[in-house]
Amino acid sequence: MIVFDLRCARAHVFEAWFSSSSAFEEQRERRLVSCPLCGGTDVEKAVMAPNVSAKSNRALATAPSETSTEALLKLAAFQAELLRRSRWVGSDFATEARAMHEGERPEGPIHGQASAAEVSELVEEGVPIAPLLFPVAPPDQIN
Ligand SMILES: [Zn+2]
């Protein structure tokens, strides 16, 4: 399996897995690759991810009957479900995550924005955070 960062015509970036580079080209030409955010099939390769962990490879390898699109849609649905129960904290993410980690606030699922510097600080402090599988637009920017 190979992972590509793809970008649709509306500049949404998302990841998709393919059995090979040529499989991606073929599926793209047949317009089987669509953006999970807008459904656009006009996609192109962004930057190829240099490292795919063995763990994520194995997880996908357990479902060989699924097409990449189905697997991708499941991941998108999984993230949507997580976000439905999660609170958007915007640019306060680092502050909120740290406060919960230090017991200053009750713990609960949150998501928001953090700079690269904030992310590395949180990781160093042992605050459990994870990147989103797919980029999400802040609620106040959705039309
Ligand atoms: Zn899109």
Describe this structure in words.
This protein is α+β, with helices and mostly antiparallel strands and 143 residues long. Strands 2-1-3 form a three-stranded antiparallel beta sheet. A two-stranded parallel sheet has the order 4-5. The longest helix is centred in the middle third of the chain and has 17 residues, at 68-84. The protein has helices at 21-29, 54-61, 68-84, 93-101, 116-124; strands at 2-8, 13-18, 43-48, 87-90, 110-112. The radius of gyration is 17 Å and the shape is elongated. The model is unreliable at 57-64 (pLDDT under 50). It contains five helices and five strands; from the N terminus they run ββαβααβαβα. The chain has two domains: 2-83, no CATH class; 86-129, no CATH class. The N and C termini lie far apart (36 Å). Zinc ion binds at residues 8, 10, 12, 35, 37-38, 40.
